[in-house]
Design brief:
single chain, Immunoglobulin-like, 3 domains, 6-stranded mixed sheet, 6-stranded antiparallel sheet
């Protein structure tokens, strides 16, 4: 009886509800003519939950993300905390996209989806999209060296370790930290000219993603001089030397020579570390040597 006080409209369903209200007046014991009016309450729209997306690798195809809700005619708008390939705001569904991450660490976007139906704003839902960066490498270490001398190469890496690194000569390694380093000792089979060896990273993967060709840059070019060949030497007292020249990478050239007065040439025994001038040889010493004049 009396007036209807202010109230909170209620509709627990998914479709509009209309109530017909009949008001009957009474005065001095006499009933009047009833009047009717209607009250329509639209349902509150909601967004069905959306599963988290990814993780994707940068450059990979991201699947379309479609929104739905139980109330017919619901429209959706969304915002993203960062751009991972589909922008930072929009309406309707998110179309298929190319996952983007221009940094060196994983990026996670939080997407908030709002719903509207029949002029009513509903509750929001959120989900996350994670995109990992592709790893990269930059190789360095170019040098000019003597035949067989060791030298270090390195590849500066980005991404999340551990990394699997494959080099252009087929060598593969696992690196727990950046840079990935390795030591090589290229040989020059020609005693009269220099040779070059070029080293690059040809394949790279980190804990999450694999690199593409454009992610692998830099190279190390090693110029290998003929320099001083390694020799197998037999010392004969007191100053006479017998040298057997040996190309240890292929053993293709051998010859013997007798020296009675070697001039200002030093020797280094690679195996023992002993060294000295040829004018003061150690009788009976054998091994692989390098000329060091």
């Amino acid at each position: 009886t009396g007036n209807i006080a202010a109230y909170a409209a209620v509709n627990a369903g998914t479709a509009p509800v209309t109530a017909t209200v009949t008001v009957t007046p009474t005065a001095n014991g006499c009933g009047g003519t009833p009047k009717t009016f209607t009250v329509t309450v639209n349902p509150t729209p909601t967004v069905n939950s959306v599963a988290n997306q990814g993780p994707y690798c940068a450059g990979a195809s991201g699947a379309a993300i479609n929104f739905s809700g139980p109330v017919a005619g619901t429209t959706f708008s969304w915002t993203s905390s960062t751009n991972v390939g589909f922008g930072v705001s929009g309406t309707g569904n998110i179309a298929a996209y190319t996952a983007a991450n221009a940094g060196t660490a994983p990026v996670t976007a939080t997407v908030t989806v709002a719903s509207t139906a029949n002029g009513c704003a509903g509750s929001n839902t959120m989900f996350m999209v994670t995109v990992n960066p592709r790893p990269t490498s930059v190789v360095s270490g170019s040098a000019t060296i003597c035949n067989g001398d060791p030298t270090m190469l390195q590849a500066v890496l980005t991404g999340t370790g551990p990394w699997t690194v494959t080099w252009s000569d087929g060598y593969a390694q696992t690196a727990a930290a950046s840079p990935a380093t390795r030591t090589v000792s290229p040989r020059n089979p020609n005693p009269n000219t220099t040779t070059t060896n070029t080293y690059m990273v040809t394949a790279l993967a980190d804990a999450y993603c694999s690199a593409q060709a454009g992610d692998l840059t830099g190279s190390a070019v090693l110029t290998v001089n003929a320099c001083r060949p390694e020799l197998a030497i037999q010392f004969l007292p007191p100053t006479q030397l017998k040298l057997t020249w040996t190309w240890t990478n292929a053993l293709v050239l051998q010859s013997a020579q007798m020296l009675t007065n070697p001039a200002a040439i030093s020797w280094l025994n690679i195996a023992t570390g002993l060294s000295g001038p040829f004018t003061n040889p150690i009788a009976g010493q054998q091994g692989y040597f390098r000329l060091t004049n």
